[in-house]
Amino acid sequence: xxxxxxxxxxxxxxxxxxxxxxxxxxxxxxxxxxxxxxxxxxxxxxxxxxxxxxxxxxxxxxxxxxxxxxxxxxxxxxxxxxxxxxxxxxxxxxxxxxxxxxxxxxxxxxxxxxxxxxxxxxxxxxxxxxxxxxxxxxxxxxxxxxxxxxxxxxxxxxxxxxxxxxxxxxxxxxxxxxxxxxxxxxxxxxxxxxxxxxxxxxxxxxxxxxxxxxxxxxxxxxxxxxxxxxxxxxxxxxxxxxxxxxxxxxxxxxxxxxxxxxxxxxxxxxxxxxxxxxxxxxxxxxxxxxxxxxx
Length: 295
Description:
The longest helix has 43 residues, at 156-198. This protein is α+β, with helices and mostly antiparallel strands. It has 2 domains: 2-57 and 160-294, no CATH class; 62-154, Alpha-Beta Plaits. The model has no long low-confidence stretch (mean pLDDT 79). The protein has 10 helices and 4 strands.
């Protein structure tokens, strides 16, 4: 181990020489692995975003309770009190027609001009109820028993669909991670074997001079690790630019979508993608060296 650190500059110099000898091949290998890692990066982002969206929606779970608009304040407040008394209800508030209208204007953004075509306010007053999502069925059942309730709107179906999509993304993610792993191992191990084959005369000379196995193979090992790491950096760079573009296109026109913070998403993406690329680079190099020794 001491000799390895002592001669590390030599190993880096040899690695640089090996990379130059197969420069064009290495560039294509980096691009190939880079796009493979980019797929992995996008899947990681998709899983993260869907999980965060579900978590945020569950934390802010609410239902909307609609009543006859002819009711006076006393009647509406009576309904509100009955709802607040139900177990699992965190908070309830009356949203009048004007507030409902202003909310929709905020959500629609630039497209809110379409509301000007209505001769009157098209929205109805309702009671906004924040709830414990685990008790949603019980809460809805209790509210339905209250007299004079016209209908109840909840986001349970949306959450169920999001959960289904999230599960599909996770399964897809596992398949892509497996494909990324196999592809990276094949590409990296092939590069190592090819490098050893191209330098077999120099390797035989070093063996005759009594050089230890670790001294001979370490430059090739470093080569595989560098290629995988550069491919990971390439994937992360493209992935970050793509995420920023998606966020700009989404948060502007659709501000009501509960996306996770972009900074934390990028940070997690960088850590995961680079970690996986380094691990696969190490394993791929080890496989390549092992198969080259056998042959």
